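User: I'm curious whether this sequence folds into something compact or stays loose and floppy. Could you predict its structure so I can see for myself?
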Amino acid sequence: MRQNDFLTRQILYTILARGASTALNFLIALLVARHCGPSIKGEVTLLITTVWFFIFLSNILGGQALIYLLPRNRSEQLLIPAYIWCFIVSVIGFAFLKFSSLIAVQHITSVIIISFFSSITALHQTLLYARKQIYHANLLQVIPLGIVVIGLAINFYVLQTENVFAYIISAGVGYFISTIISFALVIREFNLSHIKERVDWSEVLLSLQHGFLFQLVEVLQLLNLRYYFFQLGNQQGMQYLGIFSVGISVLESVWLIPRSINTVNYIHISHQSSHADSYRETLLLLKINYIWCALALVALFLIPPQVYTWVFGNGFAEVKHAVRFLFPGIWIYSGWWVLFSYYSGVGKYKPLIVSSALGALVLVVLSHYLLPLYVMSGAGLAATFSFTVATFVLGIYFFVLDKNGKH
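Assistant: Here's the prediction. I'll summarize afterward.
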């Protein structure tokens, strides 16, 4: 009972922290939308999405797989190769963006710098999660967003800078400061005598193996969540992406519930030996998640379209109409987040890879056909079908193949 109470408190605390970060993300979207309009909002969304892709690649050696590995290995042997890998990804990312047309040339250097600082912060956040320092880990999630909000306010209201550089400068400063703070929080984890020792490559290879599998899931998941952003923005127009991204920001706020459950349950399962107990606890959390997410989505659905115009500006009158087909997908996929915590916690990545790959395949195919015909509505439909397939496949693994945690 005490263990369940502790788990509940950690989930509630994480929901509050993620709620704060969700509110800050919403405020960032609001400030950019009102002061810059749909086109600049779309451009900022594309930059943020590009940064996320590089963070996910950096996390191959420094991502949440470390939550599973750090309790079993020395911090220094895993973190130092992760720092080097973050730098390598930044160099490769710079070269890739130079020879592609994903983002404007003048933004490439800024995006790489923000990606590097974000990756280091994320690496240290993972270390804190692994050590069950959830308060400090959640703090690192809130700090850079808070600084970005302050930076945007200064740019918009003091400097009168109402373009994409207002976000770029604010994000660069925010993640640089959060990186410095994160080093201060994790410095005690480093044992200098261990650093001087020869690197144990077996630990590095173990980290690479788990990290690659975990990040393969994360990259496939990111494709499920954001692939159509590039197609919608580059092919249909940045103004459509700007409008659609506002709706996404509102709807995905519901996911703070399953994402909070995901984080805490993953940490809990990583330190637990009984898969059967983990299975039963995850099943209970899954039921709770679907109830609360349904209530939250009903509340969002009842918001009249005029509210979006009043809050974000006249250019965003179509927000609710644009994402109307995404409501069921958001609810269905919330369960995927909860099941994700179970499989990542027990170190079984195959179900996550298979479900995410199939979901991503559905999204790529349907986006190709639906976006040119139905634009934003097509994006919502493609995403909902993708979310449904991914969750259904992972549900088969959980309820049929892994019943009672014995598989």
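Summary: The chain has a mean pLDDT of 81. The CA atoms of residues 95 and 133 lie 37 Å apart.
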